[in-house]
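[audit] Reproducing an earlier prediction to check determinism. Same input, same settings, fresh worker. If the tokens differ from the archived copy the diff job will pick it up downstream; this log only records the rerun itself.
[audit] input (455 residues):
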Amino acid sequence: MIKSLNHLPHSHQDAVALASHFTDLAPPLNARQAVLESSRCLYCYDAPCVNACPSDIDIPSFIRNIQQENVQGAAHKILSANILGGSCARVCPTEVLCQQACVRNNDQECAPVLIGLLQRYAVDNAQFSEYPFTRAAPTGKRIAVVGAGPAGLACAHRLALLGHEVVIFEASEKAGGLNEYGIAKYKLVDDFAQREVDFVLQIGGIEVRHGQRLGSNLSLSELHLQFDSVFLAIGLAASRQLGLPDEDAPGLLAATDYIRELRQSDDLTQLPLADRCIVLGAGNTAIDMAVQMARLGAREVNLVYRRGLEDMGATGHEQDIAKANQVRLMTWAQPQELLLDEQGRVRGMRFARTRLEGGRPVSTGESFELAADAVFKAIGQTFDESALNDPLAQALKRAGDRIEVDEQLRTSVPGVYAGGDCTSLGQDLTVQAVQHGKLAAEAIHAHLMLNQEAA
């Protein structure tokens, strides 16, 4: 249980009622709906939706397969480009990617084609009689993948497909990374993340070793010596600090820690519940945290951000979800001081009102206070520096708190590649991480095979 919140009560609702608040956010299409929706696609020759897809899925082609009732063909096209196409269909911000680019997304049309729901329909209903991918002949090469999140799984699957042996080193008890531990419970339901991991591993040639933490019982130097290549998909495991006194006070917690606990809970009545809570941040994690507290039964949920709504990392769609769950979005407010009760526990927070000056938020000199039983930080993730504490890891070139990589996902250390949130490339999206893993695998394969031919 989350020690920082042990003093808080639990929900007064029963387990069945609470579970009903965490059912599927977007119910799936049925067969009839899928065929009708697929018929709306114009199958554009230079489809802008494909250009907007970070994982290069041939969207018009798979939609045409659905329209022709070839669900297996549709799923195969999706999974060939994105092996985690099922989870991406559920969590990907399609409203600002493929669906925003859809040519039907204009004032003369009622709505863009619902690409995300069609992708989910295809993957969920494919019912393959046998595994749809066949491994190439063994290459005799072994690659280490550090991290079993979306980037690591995608890299491992593509490497295995190309005939390599892969060992995934994962710190947690379960594979899946963000999909297993960091996504709102109502976005990935029915243990979908683990079922997707099981599907990925069916390719064969992939071993997952749990309880292996880089910087603790695992070092990059050792992996570099023992394997032909290394792919780092370590994410950003540490939460940023506010830089305020009393950050260790009971009642202050990283949002990711609570979401992790919530996603792994079989009985939501056992979770500590803040009747009044504050969520600090502006991204999807902040929205996920705030909405889930509201659904658990919090009476007052305030999401506070130092800039305006238009600067929030969370999409308009995510903001609408928050508003629909009675989350109050408060902008132009900077955390100034934690307010503690006589026992040293969080009782609220003081904020400085802000305005924009020279492109940066600055204090107006005014302040206000909000009462709260708990404050959740969702102000961004950073490296757990202990992960990169051996000499070789320290040689990795960094851009701030990210690992620098080139267009082939190569780091500054020969033979070491990296992808996903831990790198300086692209957006922190599941679909982007999957693409990084896939591209890194292709680059690793090309390099190893070139060296083998040269030998």
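[audit] rerun output stored. Observation attached for the diff report: The two ends are 55 Å apart (CA to CA).
[audit] end
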